[in-house]
Automatic annotation (TrEMBL):
PANTHER family: MAJOR FACILITATOR SUPERFAMILY MFS_1, RESISTANCE PROTEIN MDTM, PUTATIVE-RELATED-RELATED. Keywords: Cell membrane, Membrane, Transmembrane, Transmembrane helix, Transport. This is MFS transporter. It comes from Streptomyces stramineus. It comes from the Bacteria. It is a multi-pass membrane protein. It is found in: Cell membrane.
Length: 399
């Protein structure tokens, strides 16, 4: 084995380790998804409050992205990643100590701060730690770690809550143990950012999209908004629909249904590498549209198999569009603004995961869960189909 081969193997191990840290951090953000029904029984609150608790997390993500989206460009990737892992552990502690809504809100807010820091910094770290050459594998590792982590959270919590003791405690204890491992791994990773001297002041930058990235950012951002709306529906509202409409109370099944969305997203991201950005971005939007149509049909027919089919199709389309979008935006952004640009991309995505879901929760008061879901599905269908048609007529420049 040559020195070059050994160095390439080490580089591959480093970016995969960073992707693992990313996945562990993101898993904590969806860990409570199958547990909301238990919290509702224990504390007593409505479906609207479930979406509000969920939205607090998304608001935390957006606040962190807007306030600290470029901090990893200035301080380095590793300090920001370590801070995000500490915040995730504090979130788990809030859930362990939970005795009412205030600590649920605090836990979700801290989880949102953690995810906001992770989204830009971890994505950039994975891309930068990859060995030289085509960045397709690194881009897939970053986006798959994001979606895979989000999917593993509900699956882990659902299985533990259904088949192990302490359903509202054990999932968070297991996650804290995983965070400790991730913290140690992060400390061992090399820093990829060369610090500037003197260091620019740390100031909230807001939405930072360099001029050269804007043409790629707008359609990719709209596609991400639509795709993350689907994710928000399944992580916040689908557990309630399964329990109330389909009479499915098995928490492991709930976790598996939510996991199927993110698993399909990862599969879509894998296919994007073969299709390329120009074809994958519009195709992803149109497949997402078909998935949302199936979700609407499942609401009308009260069918679990159709709901799962919609979850898989929608997740697959979201994965295609998400990886194509982040690849296009990352390629268009200058090196010194890549972390901030990726953070801005995630701001748009997390606006999609929060605002529509709260709307669904509010509509349930007047229309019920099924009616609110149908209105939501119709809106996402119109948005994703419109973006898909636009991109067919004006495809991205990135190949």
């Amino acid at each position: 084995m040559t020195v070059h081969d050994t160095g390439e193997r080490h580089a591959r191990g480093r970016y995969l380790a960073a992707a693992g840290v990313f996945a562990v951090g993101m898993a904590g953000t969806t860990l409570p998804t199958p547990l909301y029904g238990l919290y509702r029984e224990r504390i007593g609150f409505s479906e609207l409050m479930v979406t509000v608790v969920f939205a607090v997390y998304a608001l935390g993500v957006i606040a962190a992205l807007l306030a600290a989206g470029d901090f990893s460009d200035l301080l380095g990737r590793r300090p920001v990643l370590l801070t995000a892992l500490v915040l995730s552990a504090l979130s788990a502690v809030c859930f362990l100590a939970e005795n009412g809504l205030p600590l649920l809100f605090a836990g979700r807010l801290l989880s949102g701060f953690s995810a906001g820091l992770l989204s830009g910094a971890a994505t950039a770290a994975v891309l930068e730690l990859a060995p030289p050459g085509p960045g397709a594998r690194a881009a897939f590792a970053a986006t798959a770690a994001n979606m895979g982590g989000l999917g593993c959270g509900p699956l882990l919590a659902g299985v533990l809550a259904e088949h192990a003791p302490w359903p509202l405690r054990l999932p968070f204890l297991v996650h804290i143990a995983l965070l400790l491992v991730a913290f140690a791994v992060t400390r061992a990773l090399p820093e990829t950012v060369r610090r500037r001297t003197p260091r620019p002041p740390l100031r909230p930058q807001g939405m930072v999209v360099p001029p050269q990235a804007r043409a790629a950012f707008v359609p990719a951002g709209l596609a991400a908004f639509a795709g993350f709306s689907l994710m928000g529906l399944f992580t916040a509202v689908a557990p309630g629909f399964l329990a109330e409409t389909l009479d499915e109370h098995n928490l492991a099944v709930t976790g598996a249904v939510v996991f199927s969305v993110f698993c399909a997203s990862t599969a879509g991201q894998l296919l994007m590498g073969r299709l390329g950005v120009r074809r994958a971005l519009p195709a992803g939007c149109l497949v997402l549209t078909a998935g949302m149509v199936l979700v609407a049909c499942s609401l009308l027919a009260e069918s679990l198999p159709v709901l799962v089919a919609g979850a898989v199709a929608g997740g697959f389309g979201q994965g295609l569009a998400f990886r194509a979008g982040i690849t296009d935006v990352s390629a268009a952004a200058p090196d010194e603004r890549r972390g901030a640009t990726i953070s801005a991309f995630f701001v748009v995505a997390y606006a999609g995961i929060s605002l529509p879901v709260v709307g669904v929760g509010a509509l349930t008061l007047a229309l019920g869960l099924r009616g609110a879901g149908l209105v939501f599905a119709g809106c996402v269908v119109l948005l994703s189909a419109g973006v898909g048609v636009f991109l067919l007529r004006r495809p991205p420049r990135t190949d």
